[in-house]
Design a protein that fits this description.
two-stranded parallel ribbon, single chain, five-stranded antiparallel sheet
Length: 193
């Protein structure tokens, strides 16, 4: 009986020390991790709105609850993460979609006041290595400078501004990305334009 108590106390001390060390490491790394996230957001805003120096965040929570609920009902797997006013030139929307093959794809899109999609920048993606991760090289450039109501994807080569060439063998990633961009365009046209 004494041996069991002694072993339990030793395990308790080891667990307590490990927990304390993990808490200390978390506290030390929390600041730098947050700084990196803020830097990534700033770089994404700058990449989808080159030449604009100031981006003022519009808290998503400050939007009309009915607008957000309507968006969530229509797009249950897509969420609006951030909205930034690009110094009166337009808006940067950060969206996250769970429709991808590897679950979440988070990206920013810059929309000018005339409705032109300046560009798209992927922040995070859990897509399949080799195929789905090609979105950065293959999909992103296809959206820049387009002023369309919505996009469709095609496997046979795009013939108009509103068509996007799908990534070969990564249709799920392409569809998820196109759907999320379309959701962002619709949100902009209905609520920010």
């Amino acid at each position: 009986m004494g041996r069991i108590i002694k072993d339990a106390l030793i395990l308790f001390v080891i667990t307590a020390v490990a927990g304390l060390l993990l808490a200390m490491v978390n506290e030390v790394t929390k600041g730098p991790i947050e700084d990196q996230k803020q830097k990534a957001k700033a770089e994404a805003c700058q990449s989808v709105f080159p030449g604009v120096s100031g981006f003022d965040e519009i808290p998503v929570e400050s939007l009309d609850a009915n607008v957000l609920n309507s968006f969530s009902e229509k797009y249950p797997k897509i969420s609006i993460v951030n909205i930034y006013d690009a110094s009166g030139e337009g808006y940067v929307l950060t969206l996250s979609t769970k429709e991808g093959y590897g679950d979440n794809i988070t990206f920013s899109m810059g929309i000018a006041n005339d409705g032109t999609l300046n560009g798209v920048a992927i922040l995070t993606s859990n897509e399949t290595v080799g195929l789905g991760l090609e979105a950065e090289k293959v999909l992103v450039p296809q959206f820049a400078g387009k002023n369309v109501e919505s996009f469709t994807y095609t496997k046979t080569g795009s013939t108009s501004d509103s068509e996007v060439d799908a990534i070969s063998s990564a249709t799920i990633t392409t569809r998820a990305f196109v759907n999320a961009v379309n959701a962002g365009l619709e949100f902009y046209n209905n609520n920010l334009k």
